[in-house]
Amino acid sequence: MAKPDANKKESEIAIEVLQMNKWYGEFHVLKNINLTVKRGERIVICGPSGSGKSTMIRCMNRLEEHQQGHIYVDGIELTNDLKNIDAIRREVGMVFQHFNLFPHLTVLENCTLAPIWVRKTPKREAEEIAMKYLERVKIPEQALKYPGQLSGGQQQRVAIARSLCMNPRIMLFDEPTSALDPEMISEVLDTMIDLASTGMTMLCVTHEMGFARKVADRVIFMDGGEIIEENKPEEFFTNPQSERTKLFLSQILGH
Amino acid sequence: MSDAKSYEPGHHPSLPPPKNLVGWQRWVWDNLFGTVTNTILTLLSIYLLYLILPGILDYFIFDAVVNASSRAECAELGSGACWAFIGDRFSVFIYGFYPDELRWRPNLTFILLILALIPVLYDNTPFRKYGLYFSLAFPIIAAILMVGGVFGLEQVDTRLFGGVLLTIVIGVTGITFSLPLGIILALGRYSNLPAIKVVCTVFIEFIRGVPLITLLFVASTMLSYFLPPGTNFDLLLRVLIMVTLFASAYMAEVIRGGLQSLPKGQFEAADAMGLKYWQTMRLIILPQALKISIPGIVNTFIGLYKDTTLVIVIGMLDVLGVAKSAVSDPVWNGLSVEIYVFVAAFFFVCCFGMSRYSMYLENKLHTGHKR
Ligand SMILES: Nc1ncnc2c1ncn2[C@@H]1O[C@H](COP(=O)(O)OP(=O)(O)OP(=O)(O)O)[C@@H](O)[C@H]1O
Ligand SMILES: [Mg+2]
What are the Cα distances from residue B291, in Å, to A108, B258, B364? Predict the structure, then answer.
């Protein structure tokens, strides 16, 4: 386990995906994915609908299982070993397109649930931490409401706070703004930009190109289950290499 | 329109609604006289009530006889219902054949039952946590009190149980144990583990596919073939087990419906947070699934409660059984209306109570509007 070079590797590489393949039955969704994410790096993933973006980031906390290749998160390999999966899920937070808050719990309870039950944090302390993050996403006054009483943007910010309460080292975002009305998108993006400024490792599936330009260290373009192109945002937008990327960019930026 | 004030744009205050939009007048208007059809139906209903109600009231109340010692005497005293009959048979109705001098035991058990129910039903009960411990222990306490045979309590043969007492014993036991069993079966059928899934599915389908009467016959006759000779396994206990299993199969399907209606995202969010299977179920999935299933669960409870009357086919006398045997009593011969009205009223009160509680619970668990 404790090989010296492995330790060193862990310190600077957050996620490493090696020749990963995944099938849904006969359907080859992810084809030979190779990706290295350094600690503190912020990556935006984009691509047409059905290209496998969600599937790829969901593989990184084992919401989906891959069939070939290797995924290392925080130096731990994702296998069928439940202990590894639990260890990784404790370090990786995820924010979903449809928020997935627990409607029967208050905002505060949503935030303290995992720290109390997974990290065994005492309730009082968990509540303090939760309030800290709710303040950070600027909705401490909603703590005692139920998710159903909040607007979409507020719900998504609660979802971000809920993930942060577990004090993760890596955050995954799957189209966090695409279920929101336009006027709520920016409040969520602001929260994410703020989070990026703390040095959090972030993988974000989004079509918000402004956000990509502003915070991404790298933009990855996927199509047909493959990573077609990856580049610095400036390069990616001004000088796309492949035809498919050009087509995609012209479609989403064109109007 | 003349007295409507005008306000600067953006400065219009919230005003109370006009008088005719609230209050009972509004309700009467909306529900009874709002449209021509409504008005006609309302008048028609009032006329029908006028035709029927006096007769019903006369029969059940004004011309009814409360004190008499036989049917003949009843007939002399009044033309209405003969409630004296119920009064005469009251103790059999309630206790069945439970020995007279030991009736404090079912009485005490009933009081304890109410006490055990309070913390379960109302979450703002003071000292609820300790109350719930008592509720957990209650089935054992109740069994000891009712049957006896330990702690110096005289043993009472369960064949002496009858009437309301028997109905409540079977109904409450079935309800209490079918819910947890149903939850486990539902989770089992919903599980990803093939072995568990198959076992639960087969069990549910088998029990659901067989009429309760058949299971009761199995309990009363066939089970003794399967059990090793010499074991004497109380008939009431066998019936309780069968009724519980029967109800739990239905319960499982109702709850599975609730489980299936939850969005997949709830499971995913729980998984992504690192919660374990049982934590996810207990903290996130079941509270929501059970809430969604409340109408179905209560429906099953009510069905089960009324199905307890079927034990009559294996010779047990619950309320309905006692009623039937009372009808054939020569002294009171032929007073079936009174008896069945009484039995119907008993069941109605119990079932309506459950139904009202479920509505209260649904209201209480409602958290904000759905999106
Ligand atoms: N559970 C599943 N079973 C079978 N096929 C699936 C399943 N989930 C996704 N797919 C298929 O896999 C492909 C990739 O899906 P994925 O959700 O990863 O796409 P995406 O890039 O996130 O698209 P979008 O932008 O619409 O979210 C799609 O063609 C989809 O139909
Ligand atoms: Mg997607």
Answer: 21, 8, 10
Alpha carbons A70 and A134: distance in angstroms, whole number:
36
pLDDT digits (tens, 9 = 90+) for A212-255: 998 999 999 999 999 999 999 999 998 888 899 999 988 887 65
Regarding the domain delimited by B86-98+156-365, which CATH topology (the fold level of the hierarchy) does it fall under?
Answer: MetI-like fold (1.10.3720)
Q: Which of A1, A38, A57 is nearest to A201 (CA)?
A: A38
Q: Whose CA is closest to atom 30 on ligand 1?
A: A50
Whole-prediction pTM:
0.83
Q: Where are the domains of chain B?
A: 24-85, 86-98+156-365
Q: Do A104 and B287 touch (CB under 8 A)?
A: yes
What is the signed CA dihedral for B315, B316, B321, B322, rounded to 10 degrees? 120
Ligand 1 pocket test, pick from A21, A22, A24 with the greatest ligand atom count within 8 Å of Cβ, gives: A24
Residue of A nearest to B285 (CA): A102
Strand partners, A93: A171
**What residues form DSSP beta bridges with A68?**
A21
Average predicted confidence (pLDDT) for chain B: 84
Interface contact A98, partner B, CB < 8 A: yes
Per-residue pLDDT at B138 exceeds 80: yes
